[in-house]
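Researcher: Let's do a round of design. I'm pasting the structure tokens now; please hold your answer until I've finished.
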């Protein structure tokens, strides 16, 4: 029976501490959540600015639903592209200082669409080995040649580019790496693109709204701009809503409208979401103190976790991974925190490399200094 084989595989995952399970929230996203009737202090949401339950976003979504209804009803290219979507694309392009922007349902679908639309057989994709799964799947499906370089290793990437003499060249990278929290060397990557006539696709899912002047993202943080850069960011993390967008030159956006299968062949997101994101852009642009508070919390956590038997990985972002190593040890530590009313997710292979299981601590501007102190004290108690 095929079901028996599936169960055996699941049992093997469980034996190696790799079985994944869902838990159901009974409250909105915030630092304090309700799960199974119990209150937890959460450090595992990507709601970096604490906007997911902001009253202004809720009101904007309600107003958008009242005006446009619950669903888009069709793909953007049929009859699902509303004025709300149109206005949001214009606003997003202006916000990140690119010529044009295109909305996608998710960051995963955006990456699939961009890579497959721009490269194929005879072309080459150059990818950081720690890129997000969506970028990895996108390059596999594109049928282009794949060259992977060591994490943030500019010298190795340069060598790979030197050996490639034909076809289109596309470098793809996370801006902020989702499991490590470090930032890609974007200026150096852009310099290589200029030298080798390549495109640079930047996945800024974890930088948009948080980094750079007015939260404009990792490009602003690094002080770079170029027509060669194709910029993708998600709208369900710091922006607090849902969806994703790609910003680039108009010819790139027109190409995606015509050839990005994950855009062409899917129903548009509900217009009310676009209304909420438009409001979120206002809050992000005005969120200087939110970002300053978040940076203070990051500094507090890093200082407070000195001396633990587990290593806090190098990161200046809201993603602060605590390296445990063993899968079961990471699960046990996560469970011990949960018993103390603190929720921190244990991340294991294949999401991270073998032997690097970790607690992925994520901070939000909605956290207080007291919240962070509570986590620090709990980890020190568990280390004894």
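Researcher: That's everything. Go ahead.
Model: Designed sequence:
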């Amino acid at each position: 029976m095929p079901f028996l084989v599936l169960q055996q595989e699941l049992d093997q995952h469980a034996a190696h501490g790799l079985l994944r399970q869902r838990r159901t929230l009974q409250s909105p996203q915030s630092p304090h959540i309700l799960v199974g009737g119990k209150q937890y202090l959460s450090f595992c949401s990507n709601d970096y600015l604490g906007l997911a339950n902001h009253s202004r976003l809720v009101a904007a979504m309600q107003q958008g639903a009242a005006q446009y209804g619950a669903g888009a009803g069709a793909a953007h290219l049929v009859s699902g592209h509303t004025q709300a979507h149109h206005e949001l694309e214009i606003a997003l392009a202006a916000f990140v200082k690119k010529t044009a922007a295109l909305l996608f349902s998710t960051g995963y679908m955006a990456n699939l669409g961009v890579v497959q639309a721009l490269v194929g057989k005879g072309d080459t994709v150059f990818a950081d080995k720690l890129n997000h799964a969506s970028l990895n799947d996108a390059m596999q499906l594109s049928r282009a040649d794949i060259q992977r370089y060591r994490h943030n290793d500019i010298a190795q990437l340069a060598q790979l580019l030197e050996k490639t003499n034909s076809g289109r060249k596309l470098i793809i990278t996370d801006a902020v790496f989702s499991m490590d929290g470090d930032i890609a060397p974007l200026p150096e990557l852009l310099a290589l693109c200029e030298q080798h006539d390549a495109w640079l696709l930047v996945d800024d899912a974890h930088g948009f709204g948080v980094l750079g002047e007015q939260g404009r993202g990792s490009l602003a943080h690094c002080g770079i701009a170029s027509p060669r850069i194709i910029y993708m960011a998600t709208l369900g993390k710091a922006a607090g809503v849902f969806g994703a967008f790609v910003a680039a030159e108009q010819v790139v956006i027109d190409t995606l409208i015509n050839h990005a299968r994950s855009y062409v062949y899917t129903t548009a997101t509900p217009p009310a979401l676009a209304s909420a994101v438009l409001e979120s852009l206002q809050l992000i642009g005005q969120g200087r103190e939110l970002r300053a508070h978040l940076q203070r919390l990051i500094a507090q956590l890093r200082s407070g976790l000195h001396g633990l038997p587990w290593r806090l990985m190098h990161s200046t972002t809201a993603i602060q991974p605590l390296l445990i190593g063993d899968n079961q040890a990471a699960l046990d530590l996560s469970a011990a925190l949960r018993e103390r009313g603190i929720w921190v997710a244990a991340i294991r292979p294949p999401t991270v490399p073998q032997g690097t299981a970790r607690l992925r601590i994520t901070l939000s501007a909605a956290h207080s200094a007291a919240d962070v102190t509570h986590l620090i004290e709990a980890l020190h108690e568990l280390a004894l």
